[in-house]
């Protein structure tokens, strides 16, 4: 693979130094991120944190917005005696805007197995996706990861020019614990990118290369 530039990413450090000037001693990591509970509560019960200053935040603008809303609701809720809500990152989609794009959601195959899940994967090259053939761009693939014990989708990975657009259906599948067989049975319009998910779901039990157009 030829390249023009190589970027080395070394991570980000939370800009929380100014907090040290305040009479607050919040538990934090060496990188400056505040340690919080699933309700975004810091080590000081009356203080909540959200966004890039949270140690384990995915650090996306859309997760920061959700964290900010939840932190505010939980902080106010404690004053009213309401039970706090928890943040859940299990189905957060992510995208790297390269060409082709890289995207994903949930667990990768090795991550799922490391968690003790009896997982397998169905990898579909884009040369088997009609939309990719029409657009004459078959670079990449889509992959579904499922829990074999109950057939539920636990993750997905994408390498495709439209990877960011493909990520959302996979996110819904992970969020709502959709089974691979149910995803395969859903109607997916012909010549759409999301048809790739139907074909990948079929791939758990069939050889997609031998199927005819719009096969089920």
From TrEMBL:
Organism this protein belongs to: Exophiala oligosperma
UniProt name for this protein: Pyridine nucleotide-disulphide oxidoreductase dimerisation domain-containing protein
PANTHER family: MERCURIC REDUCTASE (PTHR43014), PYRIDINE NUCLEOTIDE-DISULFIDE OXIDOREDUCTASE RCLA-RELATED (PTHR43014:SF4)
The keyword Flavoprotein is annotated on this UniProt entry: yes
Family: Belongs to the class-I pyridine nucleotide-disulfide oxidoreductase family.
Domain Pyridine nucleotide-disulphide oxidoreductase dimerisation: 92-200
Cofactor annotation: FAD
UniProt entry keywords in alphabetical sequence: FAD, Flavoprotein, Oxidoreductase
Transmembrane stretches, start-end: none
CC annotations in GO: mitochondrial matrix
FAD/NAD(P)-binding domain span: 4-68
One GO molecular-function entry: NAD(P)H dehydrogenase (quinone) activity
Tree of life domain: Eukaryota
């Amino acid at each position: 693979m030829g390249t023009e530039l190589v970027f080395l990413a070394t991570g980000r450090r939370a800009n929380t130094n100014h907090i040290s000037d305040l009479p607050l001693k919040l538990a934090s990591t060496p990188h400056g991120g505040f340690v919080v509970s699933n309700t975004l509560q810091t080590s000081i019960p009356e203080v909540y944190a959200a966004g890039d200053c949270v140690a384990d935040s995915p650090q996306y603008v859309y997760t920061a917005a959700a964290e900010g809303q939840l932190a505010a609701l939980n902080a106010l809720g404690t004053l009213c005696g309401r039970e706090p809500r928890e943040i859940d990152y299990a189905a957060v989609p992510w995208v790297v805007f390269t060409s082709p794009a890289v995207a994903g959601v949930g667990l990768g195959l090795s991550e799922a197995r490391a968690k003790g899940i009896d997982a397998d994967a169905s990898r579909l090259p884009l040369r088997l996706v009609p939309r990719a053939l029409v657009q004459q761009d078959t670079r990449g693939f889509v992959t579904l990861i499922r829990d074999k014990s109950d057939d539920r989708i636990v993750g997905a990975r994408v390498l495709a020019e439209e990877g960011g657009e493909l990520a959302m259906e996979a996110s819904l599948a992970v969020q709502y614990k959709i089974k691979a067989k149910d995803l395969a049975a859903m109607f997916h319009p012909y010549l759409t990118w999301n048809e790739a998910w139907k074909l990948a779901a079929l791939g758990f039990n069939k050889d997609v290369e031998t199927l005819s157009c719009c096969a089920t």
